[in-house]
Amino acid sequence: MMRDRSRAPGAGPDLVVRHAGELLTCAAAVAPDLGLIADGALAASGGRLTWLGPDAELSRAVALGPQTRVVDAGGRVVMPGVVDCHTHVVFGGERAAEFQMRVAGMSYQEIAAAGGGIQSTVRATRAASREELFARGRRRLAQLLRYGVTTVEVKSGYGLTVDDELRILEVYQDLAGAGPQTLVPTLLGAHTVPAEHRDRPEVYVDLVVEEMVPRAAEEGLARFCDVFLEEGAFTLPQARRVLEAGLAYGLRPKLHADQLSGGGGAELAAELGAASADHLDHVSDAGIAALAAAGVTAVLLPGAVFFLGLSAYAPARRLIEAGVRVALSTDLNPGTCYTENVFLMGTIASTHMKMTAAEVVRALTLNAAHAVGLADEVGSLEVGKRADLLVLDTTSHLTIPYHWGIDPVATVIKDGVVVAGEGIAEGGPDAAGPADSDHPDAAGRRPDSDDLAKRE
Ligand code: NIG
Ligand code: FE
Asked: Whose CA is nearest to atom 1 of ligand 1?
């Protein structure tokens, strides 16, 4: 969502952020640390970053103009907007009753085999109107925005007919138009074999390969093609067929790989040059080596392991030590992880996968941007990149995984505009962030001043 904010030369930047106690740039050149600038500042124009440095150098480097909006972070942490790189945002219905069945001891696979699971969400999604899918998707995106998510990868996968899958992708197109987040759409037509094709899975795979993939690509509705490779979903040869069809139509592969059981998914993702291999709770040593050699980003989804009550978390340390770029994401979906709290993933990654606070921050930002092919645009704070950034309610990045279950985000800035949290309701031409109920200001805080430090 870019607006033309070109101004007369000398008019100064649109936005300046001052006094970031820790400005976490996550700039690529300084990996693996966070590119931390103490008492940092930045400037942005036309939605792009134009300057970053120590606050003490700001007045020499940047001439403020009459329209420059100044946000004072008051010594708090400023970081790139979060990239949630694996979500299933649009779906009909909810599965709270199934969750109770799991509480009573049934497994995810047992519920799926009994006709629940993905199939029950497919029934509810097919029955929902397009308006309903849009409205509920918009609410979930608004919730993600409160948690600082400025870029979201969004999958289809609950339609499982050509028309129903395309309809979900069209809803994503509408949601992208409604803003403010950047959405990255993925066709997941091969999420599971729909009930009507249960006895003829190959017929369904033919449909995905021959109709769904070509239409999603030709209509410009998807950037990636994904498959759920798992017992009870799709086999290795079927996954290869679908992903190769996607490649032929310019859709880059992604893969739900080695989630509930190991099955050579990481190896296939590496062989096909996938943008990411996701889950990886049961990845093999050979799979880890293959991901490292091929430069495939590992998207770890510890919220799904946690929410399913399982114990096999992905081997994050071994992946990192093998040189694999590791990202974290919610996997937001009604079955295996129903939460918009992306920071909670960082806490679970720390406690169960031994990822450090710095690794968590990079996994939620630059590494996640790699997983959606947008590392040149978002994920770090560098001159020329989008001015997507967060002011957190903390003065140290060490508290990001430590103070858990809360929303640590004070202010969300997308393309240089305050879109959620403190400062949202300010006047001025750029306070155009959504004032409607779908994008309430974060946690009901009442914005009444531009000077964030005053509300400390
Ligand atoms: O990523 N693994 C496959 N898909 C989802 C679960 C979908 C569902 O249960 O509705 C996941 O965990
Ligand atoms: Fe998923």
From this structure: 331
